[in-house]
Design a protein that fits this description.
Layout (H helix, E strand, L loop, with lengths): L9 E5 L9 E5 L7 E16 L8 E16 L5 E7 L3 E3 L5 H9 L5 E6 L5 E5 L8 H12 L15 E7 L14 E14 L2 E11 L5 E5 L2 E18 L4 E17 L7 E13 L4
Antiparallel strand pairs: 1-2, 3-4, 3-15, 4-5, 4-6, 5-7, 7-8, 9-10, 10-11, 11-13, 12-13, 13-14, 14-15
């Protein structure tokens, strides 16, 4: 999934005389120190094997719900804003893995704390994920990747309705089933759909579209190496409340065709269709 959700931010509204798109706003990450936000991130995926040796498996369904709390600590020593993230009560469904086994592994994650530092454009400049002694490093990596996927790099210049900008980011290995190699760079275009100003509250709605690399991507599965090609895109939105300095909601979804070749699959390869949906929403204050 190449979605970027869960960034706490503040937006400074700037005047824009005579521009047809209405007011321009400068998107900056300056949340108030001490602010606490409770979020839930949900990811759903359905994988269908279209060709190759695993077509008899049928459709595989995956689900992850990741509640977490962000507490704004304030300015970081090296610059930027420091945020503490605490993961709570994760749930997951994986084909072929018993719910009891999943629950035991996820219990090790509950209460895991990590620190993330963002710059003023909402980009992560430092993160510190430390797994528990009895916890798989892969689990911590998955959580870290989930937090990174929630962030957006805001533009330098103020933007108004209809304005767009494009960012690039490394796709996580999870975009490639079984892969451990970086999945290459994706391109995400963000467009301001609407700016709503009501009294002291300003809400910004962004349309989001992510496209995948067009060329073959190196892939490693165990000791085998090969390549993967991705065809498709993801689209969705995010909505921000300026008065709260927080995301209200966001969803991104789409279908991707994956062609894997090399290794034991040889040149003929295997084709998969993945349907994914990721959503984030702000939970009520406790």
């Amino acid at each position: 999934m190449n979605q970027r959700h869960a960034v706490v931010l503040s937006l400074a509204v700037a005047a824009c005389g005579g521009c047809g798109g209405g007011p321009k706003i400068a998107l900056r990450f300056h949340p108030p120190a001490g602010a606490v936000y409770h979020y839930a991130l949900e990811q759903r995926a359905q994988i269908s094997i279209l060709s190759g040796p695993l077509t008899a498996m049928g459709k595989q369904h995956f689900f992850l719900r990741m509640p977490f709390t962000q507490t704004v600590k304030g300015p970081a020593r090296e610059g930027g804003t420091e945020v503490e993230v605490v993961f709570e009560s994760l749930t997951m469904e994986i084909p072929g893995v018993s719910p009891d086994r999943i629950a035991r592994e996820l219990a090790k994650v509950n209460g895991l704390r990590t620190t993330v530092v963002y710059d003023e454009r909402g980009q992560i400049v430092r993160s510190h994920f430390v797994p528990a002694l009895d916890q798989s490093p892969d689990v911590a990596n998955q959580l870290e990747m989930g937090i990174k996927a929630t962030t957006l790099a805001f533009p330098d210049q103020p933007v108004g309705r209809g304005d767009s900008w494009t960012i690039t980011s490394e796709l996580p290995p999870g975009q490639v089933p079984g892969g451990t190699s970086p999945a290459g760079a994706g391109r995400t275009t963000l467009t301001v759909r609407e700016i709503r100003i009501a009294g002291s509250d300003t809400t910004v709605v962004l349309d989001i579209k992510t496209t995948f690399p067009s060329g073959p991507i190196p892939l490693a599965v165990g000791s085998q190496t090969g390549t993967v090609r991705l065809d498709g895109d993801l689209a969705g939105h995010q909505q921000f409340s300026i008065s709260r300095g927080a995301i209200l909601d966001g969803t991104i979804k789409g279908s991707t065709t994956v062609h894997v070749a090399g290794g034991m699959l040889a040149s003929k390869g295997m084709d998969l269709l993945t349907d994914t949906e990721s959503s984030i929403f702000l939970l009520p204050d406790r």
